Every structure is written in structure tokens, then in C-alpha cells.
TrEMBL record:
Residues 8-76 form the HTH merR-type domain. The keyword Magnesium does not apply. The lineage of its organism: Bacteria, Bacillati, Bacillota, Bacilli, Bacillales. The keyword Transcription regulation applies. It comes from Shouchella clausii (strain KSM-K16). One of its GO terms (molecular function) is DNA binding. InterPro entries: DNA-bd_dom_put_sf, MerR-type_HTH_dom, MerR_fam. This is Transcriptional regulator.
Length: 100
């Protein structure tokens, strides 16, 4: 796991890094665009990748996109990535004659 994946940043720090209000960050979570972890005490914890994602989301919103459009785009990109990974695994299995 990369340091960028680790969920260690609090919402206050994320707000400072992105310029987004804590309320806006929570809104993006409600709209299923972001999935922070929670500490035992219930504190939201974000990763550096989450921070980058928030900036991207904010830019798209500024360009006039709606949250459901952003979510659809991200789901489509994820499906494409999954297909690519399956194809690559298949090619590697075929190249090395690996049978399941």
C-alpha cells in the first residue's frame, strides 16, 4: 500500500488543503463520490488520493457537472479498468500457459 492510499488525514486538514468547506466535503460523501474511513471515535480519515479526488470533483462541479454525472463517469472508468485488468490476466495466463 502506497502512502497515498493510507487514510490518515482529518477533514479539517483536507478542508485546508482543498479550499473546500467541511460541509461540502461531507456533501460529496453523502452523494457517494468519496468514501472516508472512520476512526473508533467516528472521525473521518482521508487519504492523499481522496484529496486529489476532491479537487477533481470540485473542478468538475465548477465546470457545471452534477454529482450524479461525476459518479457515472467514475463508475464507467472503474469498469474499464476492471476489464483491462481481466484482459491482462488472461494474456499473462495464456503466455505462461497457466490454467485455472
Amino acid at each position: 500500500m502506497s502512502y497515498k492510499d493510507k487514510k490518515v488525514i482529518t477533514i479539517g486538514v483536507v478542508s485546508e488543503l482543498t479550499g473546500l468547506s467541511e460541509r461540502k466535503i461531507r456533501y460529496y460523501e453523502e452523494r457517494k463520490l468519496l468514501f472516508p474511513e472512520r476512526s473508533k471515535g467516528g472521525t473521518r480519515k482521508y487519504s492523499f488520493l481522496d484529496v486529489e479526488r476532491l479537487v477533481d470533483i470540485a473542478n468538475k462541479m465548477e465546470d457545471g457537472m452534477q454529482t450524479f454525472e461525476i459518479r457515472k463517469m467514475e463508475q464507467k472508468a472503474l469498469r474499464k479498468q476492471e476489464v483491462r485488468e481481466r484482459m491482462l490476466r488472461g494474456q499473462l495466463n495464456a503466455a505462461f500457459n497457466i490454467r485455472k
